[in-house]
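Morning!

As promised:
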Amino acid sequence: MSDLVNINIDGKPCAVPAGLNVIEAAKLAGVEIPHFCYHPNLQVAGSCRLCLVSIGTPARDRATGEPVLNPDGTQKIAFMPMLAISCGTKVSEGMHVVTNSPQVKAAREGVLEFLLLNHPLDCPICDKAGECKLQEYSENFGRGRSRYVEEKNAKPKKVPVAGGRIMLDAERCVLCSRCIRFCREIIGRDIFGFIRRGSKNEISVYGDDGGDSNYIMNVVDGCPVGALTEAAFRFKMRPWFMRVVNCVAPESSAGVNTNVWVRENTIYRITPRANPFVNDSWTSDSSRYEYKIVNSDLRLRRMRVDGAPCEPGYALSRAVDVLKSDPRIAVVASARQPLEEQFLLAEFASMAGAKVYAVSHLGEDDGFLVSADRTPNMRGLFVSGLIKEYPKPDLSDLAAEIRMGNIKTVLCLCEDATSLGLEEKDFKLANFVYCGVNDSLTARLAKVALAISSNFEHAGLFINRQFRLQKFDKAVCAPKGVLDFSAIAVKFINAFGASLAENPDIGQLRMRISEMCPILPKGCETGEGGVVIDSSAFASIKFPETKSLHFLDNE
Amino acid sequence: MNSFEIFLAAQTSGAAGWIAERASLSGVDGAGAAALYLALKIVFGVAAIGVVMCFAALSVVVERKVAGFIQGRFGPNSTYIPYLMLVPVVGKTLRRLGLMQLVADGLKFLFKEEPLPGHVNKFWYTLAPIISLSPVLICACVVPFGVFEHGGKATALAAANFDLSLLFITVLGSLGVYGAVLAGWSSNSKFSYLGGIRAGAQMISYELVMALSLAPVLMWIAPRVSSPFNLFEIGMSQSGMWNIFAQPLSALLFLLALFAETNRQPFDMAESETDLVSGFHTEYGSFKFGLFFVGEYGHMVVGSSVFICVFLGAWSPLPGLSWPLEWGAWCGVLSFLTFILKILAMIFFFVWVRWTLPRFRYDHVMNLSWGKLLPLALANFAAYMVLACFIK
Amino acid sequence: MAIVVVERKKLSFWERTYLPQIAGGLWITLKNLFRKKVTLEYPEQRPALPARYRGAPTLVKDPDGREKCVSCQLCEFVCPPKAIRVSPGAIAEGSPYSHIEKAPAKFEINMARCIFCGLCQEACPESAIVLQKEFSVNGFDRKSFIRGKADLYEKGGVLPDNVMKWRKASLNAEKSKGGR
């Protein structure tokens, strides 16, 4: 970043990092250059020709190498006679870029008119309308009226690809080749390609339509127009109705940044949010549908005492009774809860003198954005001081302690203990208080089961595999009768003698934990892309994640 | 002399006396005739009250209709009773005239919930509307609605006809203001309170003017009648010339005072809705409000009757004309109709003025009374006093 | 702002008595009493609506009987009181209009909310929603004000325009041969 070059965009001098292309440099200078085929995370193709600009460099005398000056003594700029594509041109010292000359405007109008020749103009039907680059550019840079009177070319429409997960409409395609390049460069094999030539040129798939890939849906986000649309989102909701909430995918410890699209307390889709330090512009297909838990049938929706549904207030008071009934208490912490709740749980564990257990959920590391640790916040358990070493994948230790009679009360968070080594008889030996999002056998066997909000229903902090602290916002409200675990935890802590404020504010919680834990930034301020916290204290712990995108890849 | 004759000697009057006399002549004994006389008095009293109440109700229709017409509307014209509409022309006419609206309004007041606000003084609050209405109804018994021949002399068609009837009616008529004052005080609300105070102050101010404007008239007719305070006698004295032509200034002063005393626009300070919500009856609803409402219109009817008796020639159809007494019962009927017609005309005038003039400001109203009308009335009184001396 | 003292007009004696003014006012109201009444007696008499009157919004079909709405939801977006609610749906394969792909599965207008502004008609890219002459929308409960798709099409009828935007090229040629 130290190498800055001085350039001039539309008469405005500015200094930009060397090595950028003109599109990115102009973006830094606040000038928008329209483009279809250029994508910051893909190789430059230079095929759409929409980003044509006028570029000039300081003129030098060919014989002597001396700068050529204007009569008034200023540096003469030698503009190229033809326009150049700004995506494929790197900035150089003294470069002049003109993006608003009549020549540039005429070029853009020409390109857009050609792109629209065979475009079906079915924006009212197209799912991309509202976030379509072709729409925006036609509005901003197009000539506004077609001169084309002939019959338009017909191309395949409604073609299911990627195992039916994506709808391909070749008529809407602007032939930018982003999808082709994504599959080739990121997935690593050719899935899309162009067939035919000239005005009949169209996008198509070969035998392998990428149905088995967990990343193919990224072409939908990458597609600047409505040629590739998500089948699950087809005709569901218009982009302009939805509110975009910044979230972090709870799928794995990769901590993929996502946008959650919400209208009237309903989540309609999840798309990746660009973070050049974590996930570039991508996310896995499996992380796109995690919001289904919000309205899932598997959800625990009502508090239960002894298996019978009851009101939250009663369940809470019964839970406090159970937790205070015996000092031989254990806590099962969860790596799926945000950092704030983990800190509250740690506080409870220390006040109640509880032993802390946790469970690791492991899977195969795909070397990209789904890491081996399938919990979003395993690092948070270490940072909050709940655990000291990487947990086992089951609760066999807890089961042994219960059977020996050393543990009489268990506060179990989110984990389905019955599938992790505990048996039904263990629930008779010890009293369980279960707090979870999902209904499970554990919830039915527990003395008290408390329904808590999912990670889409509260704001929080996750620490991903890079020890990067990232915050996510609340996307929707929890169903009636479901409480935030932070509110429940405060009740429990107060029952053991503390006096914390009920229903704590997220800002206060974050300030509090940043005061308790010096490695966290003050108030847990993470900024745009998150902050990497000092992880030297945990260097000895053996984490299961392997080298992947932006993780361990510079070693 | 039987008991009836003693009775008659003490009290000779009106149609009841006439009927009772006929009865005693045709063989009914004295006590029976006296009882009949009393019963008839009550019937006539009720009838007089009925007339006033009917007119009060009718005034409401006139008010709404005339207001509508002046403003380019039709006024109430849609309410109807289903079976009545089956009668060919009549049903439709009654509907268009808005007469059924009158029934609907009355029934509405009757059947609405009776609210009794928690913050009021309940006894006086309940009493106030009664006090407001009852003096008006008592006054109605004194109004001579017509004249007929009895025993060769003109007799008043009134429930009670006695020498001080004019004084009686002015005294009782101004008692009605106690209703407004009480309502304002007992409602325990600042708007009601201000309304009540205004009503009282206005009544005192204009009562003086009213009395002073009557005095010259009494002086004017005194030489010609036996008892100048008798409404009937005053009416009879105008068979030749209406008093309004002899005493135009007195008539104007009396009319102005009448507008003020009946709380009509442009002097309805006590309930001016622009600044007092609804004035003294702000806290009232349903039938209690209805009583105030009827009381106000009843006041208008009684006040009009007095104005007609004193200034507008009573039952004389035109200035200089009067129904000949020789026509007997017909004279009574015609004089009654003339009187009723005049009352209607007066009510129309009241309404007409209401929808023409804007409300005065309260200080203007007071200033007009004490600063302008009272000196004028005094001057008028003095002038007639001097004139009367010269005439003597 | 300087204070300007306006000289009041000197009133004559009669003007100060106010009586001629009252008489004049009474004369004016008396004249009004006999003027033609301006009241429109509504349920019996109906107003004459201008040709471009904007009443209740309805959905229309084209002369082929095809529902014009493609559920783009622009009307829902533009509706100031949020009276319109559209749930898009796909047109079933095998329908002669399956190439249009999209049609409303549900289309509801809450007439208790509608303010007859006409923005939906203005926003509609398909001329599918048209404000018609109905201005008096009544009901006995709130539910009855929510008009569904069938109701809206029944009230809307056919819009007699010849913009056959979605008619297939082959069909167009056929129709023009038939001498439309």
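Residues 112 and 138 of chain A are 7 Å apart (CA to CA).

Hope this helps with the figure draft.
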